[in-house]
Amino acid sequence: MNRPTLLLAALALCAIVTSPLAAERYVVVFEQENLKAREAQQIIDNHGATMVRNHADIGVAVVEADDSAFASKVQSDGKIVGAYRDVQHATAAGSEPIPATLPADLASARGAQASLSDLITSPPPLTPSTVTVDQLLNTFFFAIQWDLQLIEVEGVWTEFGNLGDEDVEIAVLASGLDYTHPDLQGRVDLDRSRNFVPEDAAQVQALFPGAHPIADLGFQGTWTASLMVCNALVFSCPVPHSTLIGVKWLDSQERGRVGDLVTSIRYAASIGSDVIVIPENLAEPLRWSDRDDRPAIIALKRAIFYAWLRGSAVLTGAGGTLLECGIDADADGDNIIAPAQLGATAVAATGINDQYGNFTDFGRSLVDIAAPGGGVLADTCLPDPDPNLYNVALGACTSFSQWVSPLGVDFSTLCNFETGPTWIFALGADQALAHAGSVAALIDSKWNGWLPGWLVNWQMTRTADDVIDPGFDVFSGRGRVNAYRAVTE
To answer: Is 0.90 topped by the overall pTM?
Structure first.
């Protein structure tokens, strides 16, 4: 190597060594919960960090700092509880999909509607649903929708005409929503839907120019939402007249940050969402004994408490993944399944015979209530290969998907963007959560959306059917939700 080359190499090495470290994200928790925004900003400025999101009203901030020792340094500040390094977490997503075989006229449900490219950039506006009781009772798959039969929602439709109120808004905090899908067109309030994952928003625009940032590159958001609110083209859903709001905190691979989840919960509550459903928990529990985890635990608890105070009912799945059978949440009291054990109503899954869903986590410290979520083989926690589909549910599959699930399923192929709308059978804790969220929406719809979330939750749990073991039990909590009893008793 000659001398000029050697000198250039040395300069390059020097540049590498002296270049600043990439900024890290942190969730900062202040001692005071009700700070003024400028006070929170000043505290963060004093530590040389950059404010990303200022949630001073709950005493939380999301910041970026170049100093790798930022979290330990702020411990000495009496105004700060601590700072959590906001790494990207996998979530416990594990739905097992089965493609739905539809009659030719249903398979081409988009038919004479606008082209897909037009729907992406110019989606139909939010409009009142025209779905009728007769339509719900006569969809192609309604006769085998065992989950709707179990919660007795048909009586709510036929006796009271309660199909959900359009003023009752359900915020789905997940991977986004496929607003172009025929079953969700006109059902999503895109004006108030938000994407709090900047890197995901950039990916949406790169893959689908002109698309709304809420476009679902994953899977769980669209599927969970369609089990609650739909246009009843192929299958029936409990509250087709209610309104969906998409709030994205998960990226295309169903991964997310605590700070984005805190932001999403706070946002959904601040705009007056009646029901907030959070399909996914963090795959790895947080630990209170770990000083580094405590700020994340406190931040999530504060966000959920804020939502209840604002009148929202906050529900999440009871955890679990189809990669393994459910775990006993009581076995290690130091483990915290987040956000299920941090103030949200945790919903476990039951099967067609009200049996424990196997793949759902369980425990007195975790499960509040249960809902139909599907049945699996106890030894493998995978769907029974029996060809009957009675233990799964049918929902919409997002055409935007880029997700490869933990089970190795490539949703970008299964829900192919070019072939038009897709519906799939699947099972999981998300299905159970969707049914509980629907019952909450039906209760609130009876009162035109005026009931506070805590009262909605009380009525839903009070009228649940006692299943599995008598009284409160570790698998179903206070019981399996019953829509008819919830509306009539």
So the answer is: yes
